Amino acid sequence: MIATLTLILSAYLAVLSLGDIYLLLAHRRHRIRSLDLERADTVPAVAVPERLPRICVQLPVYNEPTGVAQAIDSLCALDWPPDRLEVMVVDDSTDETSALARQKVDIWARRGCNVRILRRADRTGFKAGALQAALQATDATYVAIFDVDYRPEPSFLRRSMNALMADTRLAFVQARLDFRNRDQNWLTRAQGLELDSHLAYEQAARNWAGIPMMFNGTCGIWRRAAIEDAGGWSSRSLGEDQDLSFRALARGWKCRYLLTLSVSGELPHSLADLVSQRRRWSTAATQNLRLLPLRLLRHLNWHQAVAFLLLSQFNSAAPVLLVTLAIGVLATGLLEPQFLGLSASALAAALVLIVFAKTAGSCLAREALGGRRDARYWVDVMLMWVLNAALLPIAGLSFFKGLLGGHGNFVRTPKAGV
Questions:
Q1: Partners of 3 in the beta sheet?
Q2: Which of 23, 172, 177, 269 is the Cys-Cys partner for 222 at CB 3.0 to 4.6 Å?
Q3: Catalytic residue among 92, 147, 196, 380, which?
């Protein structure tokens, strides 16, 4: 019986991996044309200032003193007509962050920048609550959102708004996240490659193939009408970005991913901080899978819908399936030793398929970003898989927490301010 269940779970995991095979083919098919189109669409806009829309750039902050001043500097330096730009620091802090933010805001306000601080009475709804309060405090047509550790180039708005204004059905545009400290240590190297694979392979291929993708919580611009049409920001899950994305897409809105437009941020440099971050991410992914509005499938072709469902299940359930399969193989060896070889082979085959698909995706990401696949790259690939294996138990426990309705507090990932 245990061997049979192990075989069934291995087959299920292999089927879920077909979503990645679909993405590999989509990335290969669409990359050249999509990148050429994107480069044309992100040439900095030259327009009569009076015809440009009003943008509110929002910076949600909670106890982040090491980076808040630099973040305000970079946002206030964005190249957009001053009378069409508002910078809003949404500060829920309870430490010295508030005083540092106030000092920097006062400096920029004296220079003529339209910048202000929004304080709430309490931290209800965490980041989602802060963003909803910020939305209600402005009448801007578009809302750009950045976390404290991200530093956009001054041309960010002029490059990204071209694509957003050109298509009235776009809910948001998402820039690619890059990382300043990826070479700090082996942990940041492994994370950097893993996230490059997600951002330059998976998210890019999803968007090019018409498969729903999520807003990354930072470095993107939302159309206000899309946020309001989707019901606004909600704190019902720890992944408010994914939740709003899927609700907007279910209403018929679209999104655009800008691979060639990057914004540099910071990776957790310690294992403890990374575990905290991944625990929140994994819980949020499972919560949003449970809350997924399936009506968004009506806006997809059948193959896009199948790929989306396979990817959604894989991204949420793969860690717990792998842990369960490993336990199943051990139990088979103890209780049904005659089937041990078959069970181990099934698990090994599923693992080989996963490693092949994800590593091939990493190679495509590297190619899209113009990087070399040299010896150092392959060392980083091994580090990436070691990291993924080490985080499996964390992701597995978080899966059950999200599945069973556990919410928890939104814990920001500490950053060093590099």
A1: none
A2: 172
A3: 92
